[in-house]
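Why do we care about 3D structure at all? Because function follows from shape, and shape follows, mostly, from sequence. That is the central idea of this module. The next example makes it concrete: a single protein chain, its amino acid sequence, and then its structure expressed as tokens.
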Amino acid sequence: MYKKWFYIETPVWNNEFSFEKRQNKKLFVPSLIDAKDFEEIKLQDDFEKIAFEDFDFDSKLSTNYGLKNFYRFNIKGKEVILFDNHNHAFYFWYEARKKWIIWNDNLLIHIDEHADTRDNFKNISTLDSLDLQKVFEFTNFVLNVWDYIIPAQKQGLVWDILQIRNTQNLEDYIAQKDDLKKNYNWIILNIDLDFFEPELDFIDYDLKEKVILDAFEKSDFVTVCTSPFFIEQNLAIWIFKKIFSKLL
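And the structure:
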């Protein structure tokens, strides 16, 4: 899956947001490539290929461009997937399960400005979750950036969610970090780089980085999104490179 880029042209997935009000009626989904280093990360430079579009809190249309491609890295022997809209994480978790990187009953360490736990009451069956084509379709034509975690939890891939969204959550993580691997067989680290958007600069950067680096060491699989609607993309990529280069 994700071998070839495509458009979402119907009011589903993230394209459902303000679909009737927007002149543009399609959103772009890039292809996935295996990347050897961070210099391969490029932002979208084709203005026809919009990653996310919706009206912001001031009722102004916000048109956002994401990544030129999605990127698969091998960092310290672990698979790290970098993509733009966060619901794509759902597919990559199931792909990782298919490859026996993880299995069911994972702890999900979710580092994000938002909880992403809205329930759209649309679920994937256990049987369909074994078929990556059906998982791909569910990810790209049903889920959106707000509601991709609960279906994974209902289906059994995620057992517990550790939400890290503020200073207290970060400090709580530090206090319990040594017990995580004792209590869970598999851990997914799921990062939204909007946790570093400027309005959250009151949360100590060094503490954020410390938690991410520790969670990486404890995790079995890592998904990272650049979240085009919520953080400037050059900043998101700079943060990704700054933190993950320390693991090389």
